[in-house]
Automatic annotation (TrEMBL):
The keyword Transport applies. It comes from Thlaspi arvense. The chain crosses the membrane at residues 12-30, 37-58, 97-119. This is Uncharacterized protein. InterPro entries: Azg-like (IPR045018). It comes from the Eukaryota. PANTHER family: ADENINE_GUANINE PERMEASE AZG2 (PTHR43337:SF13), XANTHINE/URACIL PERMEASE C887.17-RELATED (PTHR43337). GO terms for molecular function: purine nucleobase transmembrane transporter activity. One of its GO terms (cellular component) is plasma membrane.
């Protein structure tokens, strides 16, 4: 395994990149910089996108080329001509489509509600009536993330 700990010496470039990201996060949290966790993750992500380095996510081999081609398709901008009308609602009159949509909605609402209330209760953010401040915004963020993440998830299948 290349880049592993051999002879008691840490020589893996990806380990050191991860350590640098961790230090960025730690320093930011120590100085109470808002978004420091994101800054550390962004640093590691952007550095790993640079091709031709020992820490790249896209090495010069078959796997790296495949990852890079997929990455280019994800971040590429498409003209409206290639995306307009791509979704067809002609099959929405079938009952199994509505059952599937209802099931996914039901599961998403239950998962969100369970996670939200559990974490809010542990954190002490639930008032005497069982309400959480910012509950509406939390559900809106979850709905937006679900809508944005659904096309990505379907491409992974």
């Amino acid at each position: 395994m290349t880049g592993a700990c051999t002879g008691g010496k840490m020589r893996s470039p990806t380990f050191w990149l991860g350590t640098a990201g961790f230090l960025i996060m730690s320093f930011g949290l120590m100085k109470e910089i808002k978004g420091s966790m994101i800054y550390g993750m962004l640093f590691v992500t952007l550095v790993s996108w640079i091709r031709g380095t020992s820490v790249t996510h896209f090495p010069n081999n078959r796997t790296g080329e495949s990852r890079y081609e997929y990455f280019k398709r994800v971040v590429d901008f498409h003209t409206i001509k290639s995306t307009a009308g791509a979704i067809s609602f002609s099959q929405f009159n079938r009952s199994n489509v509505w059952v599937a949509l209802f099931t996914l909605l039901y599961i998403d609402v239950l998962a969100t509600t369970g996670s939200l209330y559990t974490l809010a209760e542990i954190g002490g953010f639930v008032d005497e009536q069982g309400n959480i401040e910012g509950e509406y915004q939390a559900y809106m963020v979850d709905g937006g993330a679900t809508a944005v993440g659904a096309p990505w998830e379907s491409q992974q299948l």
